[in-house]
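To fix ideas, we give here one paired sequence and structure record:
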Amino acid sequence: MRDDVGMALSTAFTELFGVRHPIALAPMGGSAGGALTAAVSRGGGLGLLGSGNGDPDWLAREVPLVEQGTDKPWGIGFLTWQIDTHAVERALEHRPRAVMFSFGDPSAYTERVRRTGAALIIQVTDLEEARQAVDLGADVIVAQGTESGGHGARHGRSTLPFVPVVVDLAAPVPVLAAGGIADGRGLAAVLALGAAGALIGTRFQATAEALVHPSTVTAIVEGHGQDTERNRVLDIARGSRWPARYTARTLGHRYLDQWRGREAELAADARAQTEYQDGVARGDLPPLPVWAGEAVDLITDQPPAADLVGTLATQAEDALNRAGRH
């Protein structure tokens, strides 16, 4: 295996972190573990560990895998609505190069991050969040479009029109684009929109190092964008406390078919939620939905993540060169 392949696309993001390629791993809760984070950083991108709520046992298991797997820059990502100050402080003890906050108001934690010298990355899903991120002094802003897999804005914007608006609003702060990017052509497109790189999630779910069940990889590789749907049904059924303003894009699911458009009814039906949990316990239902973005059609294999980073960068170079010839 060859790490750090491909030509270098230099941007404000690559210069800030000293990485070769303008690619960051989305810190997908639970599935972006230590091995995947290390592989992305080793391949020349910025690996971001998906710590979710900052669970200390999970971090104690996964952070050593990052530290053993790479000497390149890496970071940790949080679900802002799920954490408290203690979670952030525990994570900062591991000296990440960057800390990313998504989905919620991170203002209570930004100064703690800044005092450690870590870069502050804030993901935004609308212009109100983008303005707040600028006011909080984010070093990098991630503009997430609604094509993304997993959670995002219930009433958000598509990546293509959203990213350049955030780029203009945030300048000179570098912006990463997220949502619907699964190959180098997508990376080239958002660079042309003024982004300094891409934060990529679903594509990295289907890699050798991702902490996902083999059935999830199969579903992603065989899935199509038209099979994905943004919904709250599966959060309600699982008893998840995700804020209602953030829905999740998933592949199809039997419970989704049963309750689509009846979210309020499901939320009030304790028996239906118990039936869901019982179905999971029996193995009739998967323990987690398959989070997948609209670009899932472009995912057809399960490569090592470090190789994938180089492949994406090379594809982006080729796409930009082709565009230049036209």
Summary: The longest helix spans residues 305-325. DSSP finds 15 helices and eleven strands in the chain. Confidence is low (pLDDT under 50) at residues 1-7. The first strand starts at residue 23 and ends at 25.
